[in-house]
């Protein structure tokens, strides 16, 4: 999973500094729905805020309900992937709050939402960090003395998100570290979220060991505060980073923990993602240890990967195309020596991936079929399949004018699959969309 994708994983809400509003059940409901990937319901709940009661009993806030609805709705659209719509809503919230001096903090929150939306649509530019610093200064001038440290932490969270979007990972790491320090002993949930952001920045900088450490602390912090989703996200991130470090056994164990947590939450979509990550970890272990491990152990790991991929296929049901899970099961079957099963799954996966215009996926299937044919002694057929796979990646057909180059790592099936996995984890999720995004080559 790319670093920028993690920006959508349980971020702090733009209304974070509006404490009275965050505690309102109807506002919390919107973000709970976002956590579960129910975007249409979250949008409806955000729009309903305009008709809600003005504030919590005893609250000193005088925030206009329409302005709050626009601000929360902007968060919904950003996490839904509609960055332009999110920016429009945030701009409307900014304009609506101008005439009312008592809503200055709401205006600052709307400016935060606007900055986040522009950042995700790529409109921030290299001066975006300077704009964020100026915005954070304005926020500090608006909050009460007791909220200064939390406001500073929130400002550094926005700065870290912006730096990640700009691929300035060193600056993102520094900002995230300051945010973690600000939230320590004040807000465990915000601290865990900032730690996950720090892990995201570290992964972008290829500091995988530091990314694992930050994700592990995030998981512990989230567990201590009863935040099961944050803990599961942190475990998932830790497992992915461990896989990047080549620690497949530990990665599989941590991924299994995230599977259990998602099962507890009833989040079958993310559970499926972690299942496939766990299966990939077992397959990577087979590949790395094939020269110095007993054949019985190698087969056991391969069968474990196959079982996990099979479970993922069962969880997909008939409403989702089980392309990547099917290819993963084919690879596992081949590693376990079940060549007929591997060939059958690879052929079926090829058809599904072809329908989805996934050139890399189709090439992976062809290379896997070639390896199976080679093991069976059918060298001529194996050579033909390998040539087809390489031709598909080297030059697009006349009907497909996309620019596709042969990846350096794609000299073999393992190389191609590994290249794809490190970039997309074969079944990555765009934020909290609640549905998988296929590993499609850019431009296809």
Largest sheet: none
Indicate the low-confidence ranges by residue numbers: 56-63, 396-444
CATH H-level superfamily of the domain at 271-444? Tetratricopeptide repeat domain
Tell me the helix content. 55-70%
Secondary-structure arrangement, i.e. CATH architecture of the domain at 271-444: Alpha Horseshoe
Beta content: under 5%
CATH topology of the domain at 271-444: Serine Threonine Protein Phosphatase 5, Tetratricopeptide repeat
What is the N-to-C succession of helices and strands?
A: HHHHHHHHHHHHHHHHHHHH
Q: Which structural category do the helix and sheet elements fall into?
A: mainly alpha
Rg, rounded, reads 24 Å
- Straight-line N-to-C gap: 20 Å
Shape call: elongated
Number of helical stretches of at least 4 residues: 20
Q: Total strand count, please?
A: 0
InterPro entries: TPR-like_helical_dom_sf (IPR011990)
Protein name: MalT-like TPR region domain-containing protein
Organism: Cladocopium goreaui
Keyword list:
444 residues, mainly alpha, Serine Threonine Protein Phosphatase 5, Tetratricopeptide repeat, 20 helices, elongated
Describe this structure in words.
This is MalT-like TPR region domain-containing protein. It comes from Cladocopium goreaui. With 444 residues, this protein is mostly helical. Among the domains are: 18-121, Alpha Horseshoe (Serine Threonine Protein Phosphatase 5, Tetratricopeptide repeat); 271-444, Serine Threonine Protein Phosphatase 5, Tetratricopeptide repeat, CATH 1.25.40.10. Helices cover 70% and strands 0% of the residues. The longest helix is centred in the middle third of the chain and has 22 residues, at 268-289. The radius of gyration is 24 Å and the shape is elongated. Mean pLDDT is 80; it is low at 56-63 and 396-444.
């Amino acid at each position: 999973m790319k670093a920028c994708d993690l920006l959508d994983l349980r971020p702090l809400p733009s209304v974070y500094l509006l404490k009275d509003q965050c505690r309102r059940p109807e506002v919390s409901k919107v973000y709970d729905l976002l956590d579960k990937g129910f975007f249409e319901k979250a949008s409806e709940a955000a729009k309903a805020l305009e008709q809600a009661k003005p504030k919590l009993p005893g609250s000193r806030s005088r925030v206009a309900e329409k302005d709050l609805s626009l601000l929360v709705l902007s968060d919904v659209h950003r996490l839904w992937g509609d960055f332009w719509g999110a920016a429009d809503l945030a701009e409307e919230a900014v304009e609506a709050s101008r005439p009312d001096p008592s809503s200055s903090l709401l205006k600052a929150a709307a400016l935060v939402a606007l900055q986040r939306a522009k950042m995700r649509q790529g409109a921030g530019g290299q001066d975006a960090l300077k704009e964020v610093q100026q915005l954070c200064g304005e926020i500090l001038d608006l909050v009460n003395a007791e909220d200064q440290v939390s406001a500073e932490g929130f400002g550094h969270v926005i700065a870290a998100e912006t730096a990640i979007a700009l691929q300035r990972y060193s600056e993102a790491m520094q900002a995230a570290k300051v945010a973690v320090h600000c939230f320590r002993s004040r807000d465990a949930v915000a601290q865990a979220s900032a730690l996950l952001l720090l892990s995201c920045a570290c992964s972008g900088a290829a500091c995988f060991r530091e990314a694992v450490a930050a994700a592990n602390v995030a998981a512990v912090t989230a567990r201590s505060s009863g935040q099961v989703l944050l803990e599961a996200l942190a475990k998932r991130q830790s497992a992915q980073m461990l896989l990047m470090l080549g620690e497949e056994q530990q990665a599989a164990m941590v991924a299994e923990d995230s599977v259990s947590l998602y099962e507890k939450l009833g989040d079958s979509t993310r559970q499926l993602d972690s299942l496939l990550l766990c299966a990939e970890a077992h397959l990577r272990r087979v590949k790395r240890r094939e020269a110095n491990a007993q054949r019985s152990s190698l087969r056991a790991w391969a069968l474990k990967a196959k079982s996990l991929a099979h479970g993922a296929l069962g969880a997909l049901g008939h409403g989702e195309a089980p392309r990547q899970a099917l290819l993963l099961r084919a690879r596992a079957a081949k590693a376990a020596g079940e060549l007929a099963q591997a060939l059958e799954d690879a052929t079926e996966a090829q058809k599904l991936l072809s329908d989805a215009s996934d050139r890399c996926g189709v090439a992976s299937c062809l290379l896997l079929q070639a390896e199976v044919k080679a093991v069976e002694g059918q060298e001529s057929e194996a050579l033909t399949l390998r040539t087809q796979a390489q031709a598909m990646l080297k030059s697009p057909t006349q009907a497909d004018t996309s620019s596709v180059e042969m990846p350096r790592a794609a000299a073999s099936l393992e190389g191609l699959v590994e290249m794809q996995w490190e970039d997309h984890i074969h079944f990555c999720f765009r934020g909290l969309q609640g549905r998988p995004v296929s590993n499609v080559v850019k431009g296809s």
